[in-house]
Design brief:
Distance between the termini: 34 Å
Strand order of the largest sheet: 5-4-3-6-7-9-8
Largest sheet: 7 strands, mixed
Low-confidence stretches: 329-333, 415-424
Strand content: 25-35%
CATH superfamily of the largest domain: Vaccinia Virus protein VP39
Structural class: alpha/beta
Helix content: 25-40%
CATH architecture of the largest domain: 3-Layer(aba) Sandwich
CATH class of the largest domain: Alpha Beta
Shape: globular
Length: 424
């Protein structure tokens, strides 16, 4: 399948409203709240005060719906949309253009990218308390003194416990409204406390240019990891990644692709086993790529790090090994469109006899999808929570009148897969 024509990558137009105004949203799978305007965005639009010509920052911007509303208040030339997710940025840019607000600035990054003279910052609560603190700190420096931060989020996402974190930096907030298990709060930027940043904001990795450090031992190899909030498992190696790396077999000449690379451990460990090989690391998130580059440098490992949308970021390139602990969540839900597209695109990107190795939660359908696409799958290891799977792209010669070996093997694998565990 063409990596650009995958159904997963097709944008869709959704008619909605925000702040009482109609808006056309450009949507696609892989984003949080990609099918709708979230309740948090509605609360911000219903309660935030924005005057014409004020400088407004929306970060993270998601699909851009809140940015359209802000542009209609302040003028699109005065509005900046930022997100660390490259998919969000592409979608938000299309949303702004579709709604005639193409004078807005839309780019990848964090609030430190702006000039520190913002009048208003709008934040729909990001996932994770440490990541929220990172955004609060960045927003504090992005705002002028006396500027306002509007924060909205769901009770089930921890907004009530996160509000005191913002107050530690901004001072007391004002609850403007609560509805449907969500609330919106306004904070006003004052001066930095004379004693410097509050202790909770001194954690390495929160401030721009800093990283959280930890050591990771994989077999006989030891690595220094540099990471930031927002990167998967940013304080320690997760069980799935460790299981994958303890199982992975790498050839000396492999051309390796690590998709969803995070802070880069999988790709770095793989290329250490391939003295004549190369490694490319791809992640959709700015913070992950920043961490991966820092981690590779700290361990003196050479590799290319690309901020991009999965395998579309390496179009027209082919690899002998694609390895991944793939992201599969959009917010708090599992996105199966991403999973299916990923397997299909991995097959296309592999050289003949190239291998696709993945670790995933057992409830995800990778085993079935890999059998369907590759013709077979090897279960390298299985635990109660995870399985490590490997498929090889077979070199196929055309045969007439009878099924290929891969087709015959695929049929056997499908029959095995459909057996009940007790029957096996």
């Amino acid at each position: 399948m063409d990596r650009e024509k995958s159904p997963y990558r097709q944008e869709r137009v959704h008619e909605d409203e925000i702040g009482g105004e109609p808006v056309q949203l450009i949507m696609r799978p892989g984003l949080v709240s990609w099918r709708y305007v979230s309740q948090s965005m509605h609360l911000i639009a219903d309660n935030a005060q924005i005057a014409p010509n004020q400088h407004v920052l929306v970060s993270p911007c998601g699909h851009g719906g809140l940015g359209v509303w802000a542009a209609r208040q302040a003028g699109s030339q005065n509005v900046t949309l930022l997100d660390t997710n490259i998919i969000a940025v592409e979608v938000a840019r299309h949303t702004m253009d579709t709604n005639g607000e193409d004078a807005a600035t839309v780019q990848v990054g964090l609030p430190t990218f702006v000039d520190g003279e913002q009048d208003v910052v709008l934040i729909a609560l990001p996932k994770g308390r440490d990541l929220a603190r990172l955004y609060f700190l960045e927003s504090f420096y992005a705002l002028r003194e006396g500027g306002n931060l509007y924060l909205a989020g769901a009770n089930k996402e921890g907004i009530k416990s996160i509000i005191p974190d913002a107050e530690a930096l901004f001072g007391s907030g004002t609850l403007l409204s609560y509805k449907g298990g969500h609330r919106v709060v306004r904070f006003t930027r004052g001066q930095l406390p004379p004693d410097g940043l509050p202790e909770i904001y001194q954690t390495p990795g929160l401030a721009s240019g800093t990283y959280y450090h930890f050591e990771a031992a994989i077999g006989e190899q030891s690595y220094t990891i540099l990471s930031r909030p927002g990167v998967f498992s940013w304080r320690a190696v997760d069980e799935g990644t460790r299981l994958l790396l303890e199982t992975l077999q790498v050839r000396a000449t492999d051309t390796i692709l690590d998709v969803g690379a995070g802070y880069g451990l999988i790709g770095m460990h793989a290329v250490r086993q391939a003295p004549k090989g190369t490694v490319t690391l791809v992640d959709v998130d700015f913070l992950a790529c920043e961490s991966a580059r820092a981690t590779l440098a700290a361990n003196r490992v050479e590799g290319q790090v690309i901020l991009g949308d999965g395998l579309a970021a390496v179009r027209d390139q082919h690899f002998s090994l694609i390895v991944t602990n793939p992201p599969f969540h959009s917010g708090h839900t599992v996105n199966y469109e991403v999973t299916e597209a990923f397997v299909d695109e991995a097959y296309t990107a592999l050289d003949p006899r190239g291998r696709f190795v993945v670790v995933s939660n057992r409830f995800l359908p990778y085993e079935r999808l890999m059998i369907e696409r590759f013709g077979s799958v090897d279960v390298l290891v299985r635990t109660p929570q995870y399985h490590v799977l490997s498929s090889e792209k077979e070199y196929r010669r055309k045969q007439r009148g009878r099924p290929t070996r891969a087709q015959r093997r695929a049929e056997r694998e499908r029959a095995w897969y459909n057996l009940d565990d007790n029957e096996q």
